[in-house]
TrEMBL record, chain A:
Residues 5-248 form the ABC transporter domain. This is ABC transporter ATP-binding protein. It comes from Devosia rhodophyticola. PANTHER family: ABC-TYPE DIPEPTIDE/OLIGOPEPTIDE TRANSPORT SYSTEM, ATPASE COMPONENT, ABC-TYPE DIPEPTIDE_OLIGOPEPTIDE TRANSPORT SYSTEM, ATPASE COMPONENT. Gene3D superfamilies: P-loop containing nucleotide triphosphate hydrolases. The keyword Chaperone does not apply.
TrEMBL record, chain B:
CDD domains: ABC_NikE_OppD_transporters (cd03257). It is a peripheral membrane protein. This is ABC transporter ATP-binding protein. Its main location: membrane. Belongs to the ABC transporter superfamily.
Length: 337, 343
């Protein structure tokens, strides 16, 4: 497999605090994929995203793009990387300068990357990008950020990413602020970009329902470590790790036959000290065993197309490779439209 | 569970209208809403962003601020008319009889005050003569009720996680044992496990107090986990209300159906379907049914005549011209409704 991006043994520490611990994940270049990264608040999702985007440097490990270490790229390589790997962030308020019209966010990249040699070409590029995300150019351009709804601003950010025809979009909670109807619309657009323009997408979220609907594979992080990873049908459809089980059973489904029980869930705080040894989930785990406190569990492969870092699956094969993508299923390029 | 029918409602809202004055005329953010709530009942109120949920919650407390104003209607709380209260009565009523956990409550905590001072402030504003020791004991009790350790009282808001802050806001809201709790999207910014913890906390608090709860949310997911009855808001109106199971399994209003369907499950992969089109501008509502420009069933009458709420099932009302002609919502017409392109 040729890799578009390789995340190799990535670790990020802030002082003595490990935000992300030795994560290895490669994104295939063979077919455009959609990969979800999920986990509770503070589990390290944004930390991982920021390293994939080259915004912060890893404490250990490396991010390779097209085989090159992002931290060691030359200025021109970095420039190409910046164009081909685009971020879409959670909070569309922060990105927009309230004093500039919406146009500014779109004309800036056109100029910076010299995407068009005439104003007319620039305009048609921008209009095309807006239409792709379901915005009417005439209703959007010329407006100020506060004159658009949160969902519309979020789509402008997707349009900005599309403009550059990136290879990879890293979307960090792109729809967490919009309601279900609009969320469905925006995510459907992301999936269309993935299929029609061949853009790979890393979708960071704590919404497992939409991850299930649009992604091929998912990585579930718990306190900086990979708890479970693999095909969404496996990990969300039939979770094996006690943390993913807790996560899936907590999805507020509009299904009265799946109402949450009254049992209290042990609370932990995202910022509490990480364990030095053993499984990070051990303090909360309903199935915790003696050995869970002694050493971190290896990546077991209890069936196919997924791995679970949990001693409950001791006896299963151990993943042959550190790369969690080694158990991923191929992207469904011919998925139902 | 819904209380028996003969019990008097603890909250009765009749023909409530709340407008925002804008340069183009009044925006009718709450448009002729009537609801009634029994003691101990759990009512969910859902609808898209901008449908008027927060405006409604704020008006129930008579906390509407300009450019908003309560144009007409009454809100009876335990037999007393909130609209007729003096400023002093109103201050006493809030928190003691009806409490609001505001949208974004986490960020409404005062960042430079320790939690205990904020809770004590809320208590002493309504009760006099409590000794410091009694106050401290009460703070500890309130925090325990929401699942927070007593030592959390000494912390500042920035030292708490989102879920802890949300629960602290709940502790403040319930400090005087209100009869009605209005919770405006209490879990929107939290991850699912913490959401579940917060909702379980709210449920426990409510059981302890015997209070009625109005839970506001965006979609059917969370509300289904909690409510006995669900009301659906669209463009300032409650377009359908009924027992939660009927609302999910047999909604009568086309908008309720589309709202339920926009929330995908985790059993089968399906196309993600948003509701095509946008809600109408509130200053310039379409004549007839406000949903008619987006409704796949709209016919001539919908464009001319405002539908009134009518019985469409057991304790279920919907404002839709498909009834009483139909006995159930007809199957959705095939193919998306693309008369109205997504702007
Ligand atoms: N600059 C920093 N300095 C110190 N600690 C940090 C810094 N950035 C992140 N952290 C810590 O690292 C951990 C992981 O943070 P991260 O933002 O990656 O979590 P997340 O999974 O994105 O959470 P959320 O769902 O809340 O966005 C958190 O405990 C956070 O407090
Ligand atoms: N101060 C204001 N001036 C003018 N219009 C306002 C004002 N506040 C709210 N509105 C309008 O009133 C309508 C209802 O707003 P409200 O905040 O009640 O919606 P909501 O249902 O709570 O939405 P959300 O789910 O996004 O919180 C919206 O169309 C909004 O734009
Ligand atoms: S390894 Fe042990 S503690 Fe960790 S999740 Fe599995 S059973 Fe629980
Ligand atoms: Mg984050
Ligand atoms: Mg609101």
């Amino acid at each position: 497999m040729k890799a578009l991006m390789e995340v190799q043994g990535l670790t990020k520490r802030y002082g003595g605090f490990t935000a992300l611990d030795n994560v290895t994940l490669s994104l295939s270049d063979d077919a455009p994929s959609m990969t979800a990264v999920a986990g509770e608040s503070g589990s390290g999702k944004t930390t991982l995203a920021r390293m994939m985007l080259g915004f912060i440097e890893p404490t250990q490990g490396a991010v390779l793009y097209g085989g090159k270490d992002v931290a060691k790229m030359s200025a021109s390589e970095k420039r190409q990387f910046r164009r081909e790997v685009q971020p879409v962030f959670q909070d569309p308020f922060e990105v927009f300068n309230p004093f500039y019209r919406i146009d500014h966010v779109l004309t800036t990249p056109v100029k910076r990357y010299r995407l068009a040699d005439t104003d007319a070409k620039a305009q048609s590029l921008i209009e095309d990008a807006l239409k792709r995300v379901g915005l009417r150019p005439q209703d959007t351009l010329g407006r100020f950020p506060h004159e658009l709804s949160g969902g519309q601003r979020q789509r402008v950010m997707v349009a900005r990413a599309v403009l550059l025809r990136p290879r990879l979009i890293v979307a960090d909670e792109p729809v967490s602020m919009v309601d279900a109807s609009l969320r469905a619309t925006i995510l459907d657009e992301l999936r269309t970009l993935n299929r029609d323009l061949g853009i790979s997408i890393v979708y960071i979220t704590h919404d497992l329902t939409t991850a299930f609907q649009i992604c091929d594979n998912i990585v579930v992080l718990y306190r900086g470590t990979v708890a479970e990873a693999g095909a969404v049908e496996r990990v969300i459809g039939d979770p094996k790790h006690p943390y993913s089980q807790l996560l899936v059973s907590s999805i507020p489904l509009p299904d009265l036959d799946k109402v949450w029980g009254a049992d209290e869930i042990p609370v932990t705080e995202a910022n509490a000290a990480r364990l030095n040894n053993g499984c990070q989930f051990a303090p909360r785990c309903p199935s915790v065993m003696e050995q869970c406190w002694r050493a971190p569990p290896p990546k077991f492969v209890p069936d196919t197309q997924r791995l679970a870092t949990c001693f409950l699956y001791d006896g299963s094969a151990v993943a042959p490779d550190d790369d969690v993508a080694s158990v991923f299923r191929p992207p469904e390029t011919a998925r139902l439209g | 569970m819904s209380a028996p029918k003969e019990v008097d409602p603890v909250l009765e809202v009749t023909n409530l209208n709340v407008h925002y004055d804008t340069g183009h005329g009044p925006a009718k953010a709450v448009n002729d809403v009537s609801i009634s709530l029994k003691p101990g009942e759990r009512l969910g109120l859902i609808g898209e962003s901008g449908s008027g949920k927060t405006t409604m919650a704020t008006a129930l407390m008579r906390l509407t601020r300009p450019p908003g104003r309560i144009a007409s209607g009454s809100v009876m709380l335990d037999g007393k008319d909130i609209m007729a209260m003096s400023a002093r009565e109103l201050r006493e009523t809030r928190l003691r009889d009806i409490a609001l956990i505001p949208q974004g409550a986490m960020s409404s905590l005062n960042p430079v005050m320790r939690l205990e001072e904020q809770i004590i402030d809320a208590i002493v504003a309504h009760t006099s003569g409590m000794k410091r020791a009694a106050l401290n004991a009460r703070v500890e009790e309130l925090l325990t009720n929401v699942g927070l350790a007593a030592e959390v009282a000494r912390r500042f808001p920035h030292e708490l996680s989102g879920g802890m802050k949300q629960r602290a806001a709940m502790a403040i809201a319930t400090s005087l044992s209100p009869k009605v709790i209005v919770a405006d999207e209490p879990t929107s910014a939290l991850d699912v496990v913490v959401q579940r913890q917060v909702m379980q906390t709210l449920g426990r608090l409510q059981d302890g107090l015997g209070a009625a709860v109005v839970l506001i949310g965006h979609d059917m997911g969370l509300v289904a986990q909690f409510a006995d009855r669900v009301g659906v808001m669209y463009a300032g109106k409650i377009v359908e209300i009924g027992p939660v199971r009927q609302m999910i399994e047999a909604p009568r209003h086309p908008y309720t159906r589309l709202l339920v369907d926009s929330l995908p499950g985790i059993k089968v992969k399906q196309a993600l379907i948003g509701i095509p089109g946008l809600p109408p501008p509130l200053v310039n509502l379409p004549p007839g049914c406000s949903f008619s420009p987006r409704c796949p069933f709209a016919f001539e009458r919908c464009k001319n005549e405002v539908p009134q709420p009518q019985e469409v099932g057991d304790r279920q009302q919907a404002a839709c011209h498909l009834y009483p002609e139909h006995s159930a919502l007809p199957p959705m017409p095939v193919g998306p409704n693309d008369t109205e392109a997504q702007p």
